[in-house]
């Protein structure tokens, strides 16, 4: 054994234990040497070169032993004791053939324990011989032969290795003859007439050829008597084993046989086993006994002794197991704990208490570096050291049983100044402004034992695109960067915390991110300070992003160049697009203003819609605004420089910072071109014009033109030869034309007659450079054409005179309501005159029918009626022919109380004389119909058909006039006044 780092071996402990063995057979001991230069024993004291270096303590049955060394022990003396350890097996006759495991270790008394040395011992039997026992046989006088069948002489023989063996005769009797079979059978023939004792010798040999011989005794003559066994008594100490390996000391050793005398030949067999132990019993009377654990007192077993004639007798064996008061065995307790950390242990946890006594544990010394607390059960204790302590705390303790037999050992506590784990402190909520470097000044670190020693802290922005930036470092701190997301700072904790507090570290989230951001902070104390190596702590934390309202972005095309007569369509590579990363579905406002031209709508099909505006404001969702911008175009109004300015206001959507406004401009260079017609429009208001009305039209050029030497005209699609005559505007960009609507003109939407409709008629049309203007008009129907800029309708055709229908025979009854009906142009206003005076007006419906009721009393006599129609344009028809009306005295069908319409409906008779009269959903299917005229005559011969609430009737047999329609129903009748107009 070599010395370690301990200053001495005082209280060192050597422990040797048989961990794999056979109880009752195995034993450990210290083998002393006779020389004074080695190991000697004085009682329990162990001496090395005559000096006491320790005391040994065997365990029960010597299956283990310990040696507690004193202050005079050295590495050399402990090595000598280890080399004096010896193993013995007390079963010298038939030991258990199995490997034994012995472990040896030494603790130095200061908390360190050597590695355990393991010794394996193989128990070998050197080919043991069979065990033979002499045999005795009696032959009656006059008996001619004796036959002993197998196993014969082998009955009381055995082999320790349980190997097979055979018998053979090696010496015959001097008188008579013996035959011994291989199976042990005996055939003896005595000499006739002889008596006495005669012996022979037989030999047992196993299959290894190992042999043993024994005697066979023949007693010729006399009577056989049973053996006389004597009780046996053996003393034994508690917890120890008893092996009786000698035949003379066995249970047969004191037994006698009256027949064989001193040549006793007996065989023992077990009758009953002991109750308080285990027994291995052999035929020659030897045995191995081991008492039960903790048993003391008498234990007995019975055996039977038999001679060769099978005459037997029983006896008892008593083993007196003495109660031995063994002291407890107390081992060292070796513990380890970091400083300032409580540990708890039990003084009795590994004590061997052989007698199961109540034990009392007591500390003999107090701690030097810490505090010791006894707990309630008085065997457990807790210990804690002071801060920053490191070394061995050794406390002696003693364990005693009720008889005050004691053993002393040590509690060896190795106190390590453990490196404490550092800590990271982050605020409960960690926030940063969107797209803004934010100081992480609320992060701090702590380490209870780092002091001013350096530590390394790591700051990592987790998401790709986020960043960590560091300001100027004070002396004592160093930095290592890994990309843009990781920063390592090394230095004292106090300096790092101060640097952070002074906003030395900045975190920037991923651009435009408002969620999903996080950081990771790690501190590694680099092993400062204490044992256990470097300690670190890591914390990952989500970062709450405070949204900042990002300014919108105007994506505009570059500067543009165009001709004066072109249209700049803002699509494709020339498109205006608005972007805003945080507006989402919120509303924004975009203002677009133009100088040097106007903004117009250009549909996908081309051209432009509307007269154009110099500015427009779009407010709404971003996607809707961008969709609207795809239809935007710019039309110049002059040559030179023009600018389209785009101003976007996100209205504060979304985030801190209020509304964000950005402005951009598209600069346009417009090349001058000869005067060209840009658009044609009407200066007269939109509406419907009649014959004789004047309409003023304007032909607009891209710049001023002058007219000389003639009068231009503008051909129109209003009627044959319709021409608008030039009225003025020379020297301006706009020439004025006048058109008077002619009788017969008609058009729902006025347009000029093609792109060449502007006729100069010999006139000169030139710009300021005396260059002839281009007089090609915009394509008819486009946004710049007359139809595209104005809504003018012309109706120069007067309506036809209205037609009138009055009651049959042009007569009516005095006092009755005069009901008239007729036809006129759809939508026209009908003026009715009687006797040269206007009596009323009515309007023809969509199919040209009209009716009128005159309620004023008419004098009896002859009256004249005339009609005149005025259409929606104001055109007036000629008067109709004169119709004569006779007012007479008499009667006519009155409005009866059950008539369903007091006012008659007028029905102009169409072709084929079929009237369709809708009577509504309340009228049931009629069973028959009739028409009652003004004279009270009922006409019921008309053909009719019911078509679901509509009556289709052939009125070819009826003249025009007022009738009462009579329907015969299942539950009554239905009446309605109608006027048939022919």
TrEMBL record:
Domain of life, per lineage = Bacteria
Task: Kindly give the InterPro entries that the UniProt entry links to this protein.
Answer: Big_13, Ig-like_fold
Q: Which Pfam families match?
A: Big_13, Big_9
Query: Start and end of every Bacterial Ig-like domain?
Result: 825-881
Q: Which NCBIfam families match?
A: tand_rpt_95
Name-wise, this protein is: Tandem-95 repeat protein
